[in-house]
Structure formats: C-alpha cells, structure tokens
Write a structure and sequence with these properties.
Chains A, B: InterPro entries: Aldolase_TIM, OMPdecase_AS, OMPdecase_type-2, OMPdeCOase_dom, RibuloseP-bd_barrel. Chains A, B: It comes from Henriciella algicola. Chains A, B: This is Orotidine 5'-phosphate decarboxylase. Chains A, B: One of its GO terms (molecular function) is orotidine-5'-phosphate decarboxylase activity. The structure is a homodimer. In chain A, strands 1-2-3-4-5-8-9-12 form an eight-stranded parallel β-barrel, surrounded by eight helices. In chain A, strands 6-7 form a two-stranded antiparallel ribbon. Chain A has a two-stranded antiparallel ribbon with strand order 10-11. The first copy, chain A, has a single domain (about 5-290), classed as TIM Barrel, CATH 3.20.20. The two termini of chain A are about 30 Å apart. The longest helix of chain A has 23 residues, at about 270-290. In chain A, helix 5 links the parallel strand 3 and strand 4. Helix content of chain A is about 45%, strand content about 20%. Chain A has 13 helices and twelve strands. At the A-B interface, helix 3, helix 4, helix 5, strand 6 and helix 7 of A face helix 3, helix 4, helix 5, strand 6 and helix 7 of B.
Chain lengths: ~290, ~290
C-alpha cells in the first residue's frame, strides 16, 4: 500500500501521536542495563512492545544510536525490525542530505526494499537542492515509502535562515513551492502525499501557511510536549476530514518514553504501566484537540 | 594541536589533496571481496596504507558505509581507527544536522574524545540554524577538532536555494556571515580556523567571494576530478602564503580510489601501484596549480 495511505490509516485507527524513540545519554533506566548498546536495544524493543496497539507510528532518532558506534547501529537495526514485525509505521529521523550518487547510498540504507535499516520514511535536509532529494523520492515511488523534508523546524535557530525572505517569501515557503511535483508523485488513494513536511509545533502560523501551499502533503510535527507546544498548536496545519482534524502526525519523545513514573519504576511491570499510561495520555490529549 | 594547524601542516607536507573514501555500489574490486561489508573494510584498510605518505588528509563518505547496515558501520569504525593510527587527518563526511540535544548525540559519535567513529572534523548542514551547530563547535573546542559547514556545494541543485538572494545576498553568504564568531573560536596559531566551509570547485567565483567574507576559514573543496573542475578552479578560494596557494583541501574520490588501472588490477601489487600513481598524479596536478 502507498505510504501516505498507510500512515493516515494508522492515525485514524490510533490517533495522531508518533512516539519518538530517542535514547538520550543518561536516560535509559537501569532496568534495561543503562546507557550501553545492549541497554538501548533492550529499552527500544520494550518500547515497541509498549507502543503496539496504542500508537501506529514511531520515530527513532539516529543520532542517539550512532553515539554508541556500530553496536548502537546494530541495536537500531534490530529495533527497526521489531517495529516492522509489530506493524508499526517507522519514520526514520536521520536528516540525511547529499548529492545524487551519495543520496542513493542513504536511500539504499533506509528506503530500499531490503534496506539494512528498514524504515517506512526518512527525514531529509533540502539545503543542497531539489536534485539531492530525487534519489529518495525515486526509492519511495519504487518501494511504497515516504520522504520527509525539513521545512520549518521547531528550534529557535529556525529564525536564522528558514524564516528569512528568499526573493520575496520565507526560505521554507520557497522550498515547499519547489517540492510541488514531488508531492504529486507520492500521492496515495487517500489524496494525501507521502512527501511529508516537517513543520514545528512552535510555529502554528507557519504551519497554516504551509498547509495553504501544500494542501496534500502530510505533516510531521515535532515540538509537542517536552519542547513546549500544546495539542491545538501542534495541529494548526491539520484540516477537518469528517469530524476530526487530519493531515499528519504529532511527535512526542521524552514525555512518552521517559516519563518520571517510568524512570523511577522498580520493575518491568511498573515501567510498562508507566509507558502505556504516558502514550495513552498523549494520544487522548491530541484526540480531544482533534475531534470536533 | 589545534585542528586547523594540523590540517594546514598536513597540506604543507604532502599537498592540498584530500582522498575521498567513497565505496560506491559495484566499485570495490573483486580482489577485496567485492561489494560486501568485509570487502569494503579490506578495501578501506588498503586505501589507508596506500594513502599514507602520499596525502595527509582523507574523507570517508558515511552513506556508502551505512548502506551496508551496522556491519558497514563497523567497517567504517575500523577504517577510521586505522587512519588515526596512520597519522592521517580524517574529515568525516556525514553532513549531519539537528537540534541541540540531538546534535550532541552526533558530536558524541564523531567528535568526542573517545568517539566510536573517531574523526578530526565532521561535515554539518546549517539549514536548521546556528544553534544547531553549537554542540559541534563546543566539542571541537574541547577536543581539538574541526567543524565543516556546507556553504556552496558542487551539485547543480546548489542554485535552487543556496545561491538565491536571502534579504539582499546569496543564502550561502548569509550563512557564512552568521558563522563569524564560530570561525574566530576555532582559530589556531597558524591563523587558520577549523570552522571550515564547503565551497564546490564548480563555483570559483563564489569561492573567491567566500574567501573575502571569511578570510580565516579553511575550505573543503569537492567537485575536483570526476565532478569536472580543474585544479586552478578548485583553488580559486585559496590565497598566497609564501610562494604557494594555501587555505584548505581539495577532495577527489573516484579519480584516486577507483582509477581504471586499479579496477582492472589482477593482483594486490598492481592495485597498490595504480592507487599510489593516481594519488601522486592528483597531488602533482594540484601542486602545479598551487606553486607560484
């Protein structure tokens, strides 16, 4: 099935939450062995189990596995395989970007049919130009995958260049304008496109503007929860379909994977209960804001 | 020693060539076992041996190791360790870029004192803003490393956004202007800064302009050789020091690591001779253009 159709079906079944799997230094509970490649792997596999049936979408952040070297990348590969087997849609957050033949290497790593890091979509950086995105879009077309382009990110520094005027409109708008043909190419039967845009929850006005420019692109919205934005702001770029806001996923990481009750859990049962509770609470918070 | 001082000393000893280690699909000779993680590792270790004494600087491209999964990343780690032991300066070409806490993860992977992928400098993408570069600069200050920021790349798509006017000047110039304090922070005794800029050999005018804007930043110049630019164009942003052009490194990959004579070699001795010849020829070509 087309990636966009799979993603939107997952949000219709479970809600718009995307659970971030970001094993920050010092946060893996001792229950799993702490901050080692083995600890990260055990934690990630347990997170997949806890997420299954409560969310349809997860987003691992590559940096936190790379800092553990190849053993960390082995943990990532095994977590991705478990996510695939659990039927979760995996948005791989690696923010890659390079010229053609090199971009093909990244596409082979994450988006190919038998990719060693099996993912449903990959975040990519558009700075180097539209030609550098083409190998990813080609792989996505061939294999029913998605490509997630950084547009307006959630950090304060997004004001440095992204929001400045490039020949009359903000740089991030110019980028989205240039993506129109690729958005069209990755459209599914739902009408949504698997050429997704990153639009930070901390910029609700910008998200609404991007929705005007790209009515069919699914959004990946970071910045909800620990980074400070509420559910309504996070869904500013969503649109009504039936009686529910739709059009992307809202990602949360620390608040659902390292809630205080999980960090202080003294048994795996306690930890599982804490994670399930945090995911259910975030999903419910988003659903209240989404339902009309 | 400061990274910039080490890099410039290496170019003074051997010349401005930086040897790219980019194991493209289908290019690893059968002598090494072909396109497998083991083949990539054996080839990379042999390239380090062949490069030693002929160049001071190498640049592995992460994508080509990632496409082989964690086993490819293990090969990369071992090649990096061999390069360090051989005294080569390693510019890790991974073009990472993410918000603060995530950027710290990438810095831990590549620039920390005991990084699992030991590198002397890391290429980073500035699109997300100056705050996203800070963790890399901080790690570089602490550990005598460098940070290489994409400015004007060598691909045709660099015209899409990089060269367009952002509030009155090309985007890549605006980025370089914003980097001034970081360039200052990573300056060595040589006067050169380890906050390096990527300036494609295919844009000699742009390189000269960037040299005006950032007189102390070392340049990493891709696009020489297989991508089409000649030695003189590649060093457009360099400046005379004594009777030689100086100010960065010029990278070549396919032309020095997969020359036809090496691809058709029937023994390791033949392969070594071919690689040594290709590296020496590129170094000589650049030196002719550099010497005044």
């Amino acid at each position: 099935m087309n990636f966009a159709d799979r993603l939107i079906a997952a949000t219709e079944e479970f809600g718009p939450l995307c659970v971030g799997l970001d094993p920050h230094a010092g946060r893996i509970p001792d229950l799993f062995g702490g901050d080692t490649p083995e600890g990260v792997e055990a934690w990630g596999l347990a997170m997949i189990e806890a997420a299954k049936g409560r969310t349809g979408v997860i987003k691992p952040q590559s940096a936190f596995y790379e800092r553990h070297g190849w053993q960390g990348m082995r943990a990532l590969a095994r977590i991705l395989e478990a996510a695939r087997d659990a039927g979760l849609v995996v948005l791989m957050d690696a923010k890659r970007g390079d010229i053609g033949s090199t971009a093909e290497g990244y596409a082979a790593a994450f988006l190919a049919e038998n990719a060693p890091f099996p993912s449903d979509a990959l975040t990519v950086n558009p700075y180097m130009g539209v030609d550098t995105l083409e190998p990813h879009v080609k792989a996505a077309e061939a294999n029913g995958k998605g490509v997630i382009v950084l547009a307006r990110t959630s950090n304060p520094g997004s004001a440095d260049f992204q929001s400045k005027s490039l020949e009359g409109a903000p740089l991030y708008e110019r980028i989205v304008e240039a993506l129109a043909p690729m958005i069209e190419r990755l459209k599914g039967e739902s009408g949504w496109s698997g050429l997704m845009l990153v639009t930070g929850a901390t910029g609700p006005q910008e998200a609404r503007r991007l929705r005007e420019l790209a009515p069919d692109a699914l959004f990946l919205v970071p910045g909800y929860g620990a980074q400070g934005a509420g559910a309504a702001d996070a869904m500013s770029g969503f649109v009504l379909r039936g009686n529910r806001l739709s059009g992307g996923v809202v990602s949360a990481s620390r608040s659902v994977s390292f809630p205080p009750e999980a960090q202080s859990a003294s048994s795996m049962d306690e930890w599982r209960t804490a994670i399930a509770g945090a995911i259910n609470a975030a999903q419910a918070d988003l659903m209240v804001a989404a339902n009309r």
